[in-house]
């Protein structure tokens, strides 16, 4: 029996080491491209045109970052991305919470049918409605506006589904106790139930922010004015003629600069991101 236990422990220990080694290897594979981009951003374009492997050798320079500070449109694009991402996240949280409360707690004709129709939105790709959306926003003169960039993303079927399920998980006795104190429906929603959904709201808000920050398709269609570019569109616009336009090192410096806000968000909300990912995996 002791021999079997020992062999089992050894087997588990070996398995754990294999998993750890595989995890480290995958982490290195994921990190290397980012480190390479940082290295490229610290080299002059003249050196990179001769040999991109020069990134491994000194000298390095912060000239590309200095050029961003004094003459790049990246700050304008950064501001646009912040406004759009934050605005879209707040809009999704407000609309999804209200809709989730309505589907979970209120009785009204056609509730189940409407909820199913909302969920159908998960199966419709954005590309399928892009022409109709473009025509609609053009008729309303919403292109090249913050509202035009944010409004399509506020239609979030997943957010409605998530908040509906979360509200359903809260016992109805909570509502009944609040009603005994003559609380209105809105007061029950705002003061009692909504604070109990903060974990779900944090998860939804983080995922919405990351999606909005990295979105390229709709901002490319709607934001045709350079002053309304988001970071993804703005940086892509500088890639014409590859390194010969503004310089590969300068381009990589812009990419690194653009990634810093996401890194900051991750550092502050790491606990919620891990909880959200583990919850989604479960």
From TrEMBL:
InterPro entries: MetI-like, MetI-like_sf. Keywords: Cell inner membrane, Cell membrane, Membrane, Transmembrane, Transmembrane helix, Transport. It is a multi-pass membrane protein. CDD domains: TM_PBP2. The chain crosses the membrane at residues 18-39, 77-101, 113-134, 146-167, 188-213, 248-269. It holds the Pfam family BPD_transp_1. Belongs to the binding-protein-dependent transport system permease family. It is found in: Cell inner membrane; Cell membrane. This is sn-glycerol-3-phosphate transport system permease protein UgpE. The complex is composed of two ATP-binding proteins (UgpC), two transmembrane proteins (UgpA and UgpE) and a solute-binding protein (UgpB). Part of the ABC transporter complex UgpBAEC involved in sn-glycerol-3-phosphate (G3P) import. Probably responsible for the translocation of the substrate across the membrane. Its main location: membrane. Residues 78-269 form the ABC transmembrane type-1 domain.
């Amino acid at each position: 029996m002791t021999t079997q236990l020992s062999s089992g422990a050894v087997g588990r220990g070996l398995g754990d080491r294999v998993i750890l080694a595989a995890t480290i290897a995958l982490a290195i594979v994921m990190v290397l491209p980012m480190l390479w981009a940082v290295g490229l951003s610290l080299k002059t374009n003249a050196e990179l045109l001769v040999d991109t492997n020069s990134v491994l050798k000194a000298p390095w320079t912060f000239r590309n970052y200095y050029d961003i500070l004094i003459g790049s449109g990246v700050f304008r694009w950064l501001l646009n991305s912040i406004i759009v991402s934050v605005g879209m996240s707040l809009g999704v949280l407000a609309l999804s919470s209200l809709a989730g409360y309505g589907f979970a707690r209120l009785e009204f004709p056609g509730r189940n049918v409407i909820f199913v129709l909302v969920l159908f939105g998960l199966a419709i790709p954005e590309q399928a409605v892009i022409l109709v959306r473009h025509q609609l926003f053009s008729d309303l003169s919403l292109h090249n506006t913050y509202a035009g960039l944010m409004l399509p993303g506020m239609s979030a079927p997943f957010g409605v589904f998530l908040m509906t399920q979360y509200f359903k998980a809260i016992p109805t006795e909570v509502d009944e106790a609040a009603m005994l104190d003559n609380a209105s429906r809105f007061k029950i929603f705002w003061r009692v139930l909504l604070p109990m959904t903060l974990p779900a709201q944090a998860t939804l808000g983080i995922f919405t922010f990351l999606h909005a920050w990295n979105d390229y398709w709709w901002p490319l269609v709607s934001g045709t004015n350079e002053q309304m570019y988001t970071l993804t569109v703005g940086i892509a616009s500088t890639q014409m003629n590859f390194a010969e336009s503004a310089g590969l090192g300068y381009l990589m410096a812009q990419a690194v600069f653009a990634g810093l806000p996401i890194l900051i968000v991750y550092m502050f909300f790491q606990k919620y991101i891990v909880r959200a990912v583990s919850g989604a995996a479960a």
